[in-house]
Amino acid sequence: MSETPLLRVKDISKFYGSRTGCRNVSFDLWPGEVLAIVGESGSGKTTLLNCISTRLMPTTGSIEYHMRDGNYRDLFRMSEAERRFLMRTDWGFVHQNPADGLRMTVSAGANVGERLMAIGDRHYGNIRATAIDWLDRVEIDADRIDDQPRAFSGGMRQRLQIARNLVTAPRLVFMDEPTGGLDVSVQARLLDLFRGLVQDLGLSAIVVTHDLAVARLLSHRMMVMKDGLVIEHGLTDRVLDDPREPYTQLLVSSILQV
């Protein structure tokens, strides 16, 4: 693992008037590392993810990203155009609802190809060939390349969204409840696929989930949030097998009792 963090998050807080979204969150994310942010609904995990991914402006704090040129940039000191380019190229964002991350009225191939065009690829043959390759990697038959996502099942849409995000070889992927709403068997297939891609591509990822089984399967490290605060933070197996905070113990025991 690199000695240089890919992402440095320092004292991030987000307030909505008197209500706290998240407060004083700090951590480093390392190349090739998957971090899970877990907690119940309203714990602040999605607010934190949206701040880190620049979809939401934090009230206080800073987030620095290690650019490909070797320099750190404060994400909120970059121009809007620079951030948009980063999101189209070096980052991916996988939404819980695939319709939020796909263009539902264009073909599967076009959904993948648009990301390539965003980084300057204009050769139709190359774009289509790459799209076919990525559909195969996410276990979608190549003969579905001209079908629109609205003709796909929920699991297929989520796999297509993953292909759309990973085709530009990003270094960092954000995932917001990536298996939410999917059947258990579909979830297992999707998680196994994503875990393999993360390992093969050396991706870093931040995964928000309320499902501790998802956190265990995907992540190296996890943060537990409650009322906008990180109350426990450590290696995933340690946190789940030997939780120190009463709230974490309650979360783990509730899963074991299901």
TrEMBL record:
GO terms for MF: ATP binding; ATP hydrolysis activity; lyase activity
Could you tell me which Pfam families the record lists for this protein?
ABC_tran (PF00005)
Keyword entries, A-Z: ATP-binding, Lyase, Nucleotide-binding
A biological process from GO: organic phosphonate catabolic process
Pinpoint the ABC transporter domain residues: 7-252
Q: Does the record carry Ribonucleoprotein as a key word?
A: no
Tell me the CDD domains matching this sequence: ABC_NikE_OppD_transporters (cd03257)
InterPro entries, A to Z: AAA+_ATPase, ABC_transporter-like_ATP-bd, ABC_transporter-like_CS, P-loop_NTPase, PhnK
**In terms of domain of life, where is this protein from?**
Bacteria
Protein family membership: Belongs to the ABC transporter superfamily.
Q: Any idea what this protein is called? A: Phosphonate C-P lyase system protein PhnK
Q: Which gene encodes it?
A: phnK
